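Narrative of accomplishments. A recurring question from our advisory board has been how the design workflow behaves on a single, concrete structure rather than in aggregate. To address it, we present the structure tokens for one chain from the evaluation set, followed by the sequence designed for it. No filtering or post-editing was applied between the two.
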């Protein structure tokens, strides 16, 4: 039987499973490709829930886990409130290792106004690196909510900050010496590592600004598989096509330098830190102005078009299919690097 590659499950396999899920009348939003948050009606309130692990990072893993879960709640225009974490540590982990991760979780929750309400910790057989699973909860009035599937034909597509912020920072922290070997300056590598905090991977601020300042139809935060996968998820969820202007996609200089040095495509690199929004063209200037006033860079990068037009990028020759990344570029790089190390050990 064919084994699955590292990364997200193939869309066909996941879609087959999701087609079997049955929901009761209390489920406002259930599981679907491109929809990362569940919403359940509880009396006169909505319970908003999200779960996500962090498996690729080791440095600041607790900080990552809180932020990536908070981001998905934020895409509904909702403020995250309660967090649970399951922390799995590899054998031979020290008390210092455990304290570092647990303190990261607690301080990050406090910085975002989130209360840590529970979880689980253990030393786990067979792990080579820590894994942290998060579950974020929120409460909202029973009102229409923003969804990934809300994108409408004719909408402008807005992207905040720049692509692959998380992937760039993670690579700088995980393989900084290799980047220096490949002629990047230590100053640039440090700047790349600091993208984790500035502009940062949280999209909570811009999501709440967007909800308050414009008639936003859809919000989605691209994560594993990069901006390309995030855009594809919007297309699938909303049953629309997209036409992307690649020259308008903001790429930070640190991201370009790191990707060039490692032979990676930033369009497919872990992308927490960016927020994809769609809204009427008449509202886009209002949103961009509100974001700019709050110190958040953003740009219109394309249009929502009819589903029959597909998901494409504009090129000098006309239009081409948007590149697809079944595996995140970070996972591909780390896997190939580990394979090279194993081959070298066997030769020795």
């Amino acid at each position: 039987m064919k084994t699955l590659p590292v990364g997200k499950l193939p869309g066909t396999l996941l879609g087959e499973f999701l087609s079997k899920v049955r929901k009761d009348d209390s489920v406002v939003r259930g599981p679907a490709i491109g929809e990362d948050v569940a919403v359940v009606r509880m009396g006169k309130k909505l319970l908003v829930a999200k779960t996500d692990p962090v498996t690729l990072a080791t440095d600041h893993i607790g900080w990552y886990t809180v932020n990536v879960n908070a981001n998905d709640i934020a895409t509904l225009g909702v403020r995250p409130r309660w967090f649970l974490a399951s922390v799995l540590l590899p054998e031979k982990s020290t008390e210092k290792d455990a304290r570092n991760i647990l303190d990261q979780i607690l301080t990050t929750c406090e910085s975002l106004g989130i209360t840590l309400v529970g979880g689980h910790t253990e030393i786990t057989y067979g792990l080579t690196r820590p894994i942290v699973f998060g579950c974020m909860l929120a409460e909202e009035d029973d009102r229409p909510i923003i969804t990934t599937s809300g994108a409408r034909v004719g909408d402008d597509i807005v992207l905040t900050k720049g692509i692959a912020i998380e992937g760039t920072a993670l690579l700088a922290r995980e393989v900084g010496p290799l980047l220096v070997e490949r002629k990047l300056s230590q100053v640039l590598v440090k700047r790349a590592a600091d993208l984790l905090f500035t502009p940062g991977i949280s999209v909570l601020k811009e999501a709440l600004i967007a909800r308050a300042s414009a008639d936003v139809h859809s919000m989605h935060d691209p994560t594993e598989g990069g901006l390309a996968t995030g855009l594809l998820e919007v297309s699938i969820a909303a049953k629309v096509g997209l036409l992307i202007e690649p020259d308008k996609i903001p790429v930070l200089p640190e991201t370009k330098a790191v990707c060039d040095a490692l032979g990676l495509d930033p369009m497919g690199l872990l992308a927490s830190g960016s927020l994809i929004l769609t809204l009427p063209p008449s509202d886009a200037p209002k949103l961009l102005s509100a974001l700019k006033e709050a110190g958040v860079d953003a740009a219109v990068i394309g249009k929502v078009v009819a589903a029959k037009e597909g998901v494409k990028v504009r090129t000098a020759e006309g239009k081409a299919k948007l590149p697809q990344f079944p595996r995140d570029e970070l996972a591909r790089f780390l896997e190939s690097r580990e394979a090279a190390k194993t081959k070298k050990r066997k030769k020795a």
